[in-house]
Amino acid sequence: MSQTSPIATVNQLGRHEGRTATLAGWVYNVRVTSKVVFLVVRDGSGLCQCVIGKDAAPPEVFDRAARLTQESSLRVTGQVQREERAPGGYELHVSDIEVVHATVDYPITPKAHGPEFLFKHRHLWFRSRRPTAIMRIRHTVIDAIRRFFNDHGFMLVDTPIFAPSAGEGAQTLFAVDYFGEPMYLAQTGQLYLESAALAYGKVYCFGPTFRAEKSKTRRHLTEFWMVEPEIAWARLEELLEVAEDFIVAIVQRVLHDNRPDLEFLGRDVAGLERIVKPFYRLTYSQAADILRGPKARELLNGDLAAGQARITELHKSVEDKENERTGPGIKKHRQETLAQEILAQREELAELEEQVKNIPHHMELAANFEWGKDLGGSDETIISRLHDRPVFVTHYPRECKAFYMKRDHEDPRVVRNFDLLAPDGYGEIIGGSQREDELDALLARMAEEKMATEPYEWYLDLRRYGSVPHGGFGLGVERTVAWICGLKHIRETIAFPRLMGRVYP
Ligand code: 4AD
Ligand code: MG
User: In the chain, which residues have pLDDT < 50?
Assistant: First the structure.
């Protein structure tokens, strides 16, 4: 077939209304009836319903359409018509189809697949609607991040990925062999960025970072993307304001650009609309009081009761469905539907049982929370769920935080740092601090931590030559995307997730 009209994209189809256009894409779905074939084409920009009428299209085109298989690639030509009920608002009334590659047995079918299977087929799963919506939101988040800093006078400075020493604690370093010398993958760009801040004022770095996290949690990847601003002359209070504006800007951009994606994911959009200034501000000590107090207890008791009730309900429902599925005279279609529903409910059940089992432990951790300990994942979840907007937790005990954080002169037990907890139980998405800018205090702290000073001589130089108050923070892209999308697990927010026990594909 010779191509009759220029290639249009689904998201721009409106421009061709009433005229002939050609789409180049893949078969997302095809439904064949005796008179019409309904073909849904995916081209990366959206989904378009294409209609091939037996009476309207040439017979060989109708036959070709009826034999199309999922994820075959093709060019399809037809009249663009306005159709309110169609996914993108337009429909293609097809006059010609050219199959470019006919796919046989595409592994991901419209039926339900478990996460193991889907992640093993991540390279193909990508094409489905849910990952597409998430990847689009991730794109917006990253663009909003760059814009925010570029528009606010920050200069981008790329920091190295090969790092000869730890930035965030030795336990999570990935070692690599660098021509026979030990070397590590960067956990943060911060230390290098501090030198850039003292050179250029307001700077940021943005890149992949690596942590050998052995914990298999919903919040940890071994490779994740972090953006880190660093500001000369900034004190803690100013950092909080920058972080607040920054988060609001990101959420606003996603609300503006990705509303249909959020809705497709079932995200409570109203919850995102409530992300306005000012965020809550708690000190670590206040957070500790909340954890030990009645509100935390009430919250978890409520979870326990609700969880147990839902478990009973699910057991009953699965049992009923099993009985119906294996009962006499059941239709094949109904049987398949039931099987899928049972699979989904079993998955929910397993997850919920695991959650409920952990609640008493989380209650105990919270009730006996000791001043001096870092907030754990379950503690963060409690604090963030008790607030409907993000919460800054500031002034942590110095013993649970990194060596570079500035000691507070008013209360030397704490440092001038903050974590930002996202609402709805998502926990920490930003960690930041004012930096120790006094040479003697920094050396004393490094000695306490038994850190060798030699690898850090260059870093100490920043305190020897024109030291100034300064600070910054790091935002984890994947945790932010998980929160904005309302996802249970961080692994869906990155193209090819790297976790302990998952590196394929
Ligand atoms: O709190 P963190 O460790 O802070 C730093 O690395 C500082 N050097 C940042 C700075 O002040 N410039 O990490 C910052 C953020 C966390 O709040 C979290 O969002 C994300 O990075 N993060 C992770 N995301 C996914 N998987 C992991 N294993 C993560 N570890 C940290
Ligand atoms: Mg942190």
Answer: 1-2
472 Cβ below 6 A of ligand 1: yes
Neighbours of ion ligand 2 (CB under 5 A): 431
Beta carbon of 224 within 6 Å of any ligand 1 atom: yes
List C-alpha distances in Å: 328 to 322, 325, 338, 341: 12, 8, 14, 19
Q: Is the CB of 479 under 6 A from ligand 1?
A: yes
Query: Could you tell me if 235 and 469 are in contact, meaning their C-beta atoms sit under 8 angstroms apart?
Result: yes
- Determine the pLDDT at residue 271: 95
- Looking at 1.20.58.220, 3.30.930.10, 3.60.9.10, 3.40.225.10, the CATH number of the domain 118-279+389-493 comes to 3.30.930.10
Cα dihedral: 131, 133, 135, 136 (round 10): 160
Q: Is the CB of 229 under 6 A from ligand 1?
A: no
CA–CA dist 60, 58 (Å, integer):
6
133 lines ligand 1 (CB under 6 A): no
Burial (Cβ within 10 Å: 0-12, 13-18, ≥19) of residue 332 = exposed
Residue carrying structure tokens 């087929």: 121
261 alpha carbon to ligand 1 midpoint, in Å? 26
Give the ligand whose atoms come closest to the C-alpha of residue 479: 1
Q: Render 97-134 in DSSP notation, one character per residue.
A: EEEEE---S-S--SS---HHHHHHTHHHHTTSHHHHHH
Output the pTM of the full model. Answer: 0.95
Q: What is the pLDDT of residue 1?
A: 47
Q: What atom in ligand 1 is closest to the CA of residue 222? A: 28
Q: Tens digit of pLDDT for each residue in 22-59?
A: 999 999 999 999 999 999 999 999 999 999 999 999 99
**Atom in ligand 1 nearest the alpha carbon of residue 228:** 12
Among 406, 473, 463, CA closest to 198: 463
CATH number listed for the domain at residues 7-101: 2.40.50.140
Q: So where are the chain's domains? A: 7-101, 118-279+389-493, 296-366
Could you check whether 7-101 and 118-279+389-493 share the same CATH topology?
no
